[in-house]
Design brief:
The protein is α/β, with parallel strands linked by helices and 199 residues long. The chain is built from 7 helices and 6 strands, in the order E-H-E-E-E-H-E-H-E-H-H-H-H.
Length: 199
């Protein structure tokens, strides 16, 4: 099996870290019998904590490294990547910015220079930026779960040897959730990111 690097690339404050953490906690909630925590590098295994999470765990017998910190000059990103390689993780899941130290660090792992096949899963970021300050918690939860489900589905296909990622289908799902948001709240509220207000 080839190594896989799944990265959530986006601008500051668009929900990258929350999306990455959602993947881990979705796995814990729905596939606990297939998860074994190997090392907690930093953060907490408590879903309600807001701090970044770095963890190495096995899923379906495959070693996975997950790092939610994606900001330049952060404390954990570079250290976690080194630990993931040291522990021979087959799959890495992480956040990063669109340019700068974090994306450059990931590019060093990409084929042909490195050993990982890179797959970008950024659609959650684009959707979250649209609704994060304007729409109800239910919409936010659904976006998080949808992103997590897509990443977990990709991991399962990779492990099973069926390597495909339908970015178009997932983007359409995100668009449908945004449309639902707009129907529940005034479009001007959602578009401008001002304080919530029922229609």
């Amino acid at each position: 099996m080839q190594n896989l690097l799944i990265y959530n690339k986006g601008y500051n404050g668009t929900g990258k870290s929350k999306a990455i953490k959602a993947v881990f906690f979705r796995l814990i909630a729905e596939h606990s019998e297939q998860i074994e925590i190997k090392r907690l590098l930093h953060g907490s295994l408590n879903l309600s904590d807001n701090e970044d999470l770095g963890v190495i765990f096995s899923y379906r017998g495959i070693l996975v490294g997950l790092e939610s910190e994606g900001d330049p000059n952060g404390k954990y990103m570079q250290l976690s990547l080194k630990e993931f390689q040291k522990e021979l993780c087959t799959i890495i899941i992480c956040a990063c910015r669109t340019k700068g130290d974090t994306i450059n660090a990931l590019k060093k792992l990409w084929l042909p220079e490195g050993d990982f096949v890179p797959v970008a899963c950024p659609h959650f970021v684009l959707s979250l930026k649209y609704v994060q300050n304007a729409c109800p918690d239910e919409i936010y939860r659904r976006l998080s779960e949808s992103y997590a489900d897509e990443v977990i589905h990709l991991i399962d296909m990779w492990i099973d040897g069926v390597c495909q990622y339908d970015a178009k289908a997932h983007k359409e799902e995100m668009r449908n959730i945004k449309q639902e948001c707009s129907s529940m709240y005034k479009p001007s509220i959602c578009n401008n990111g001002r304080k919530r207000e029922n229609s």
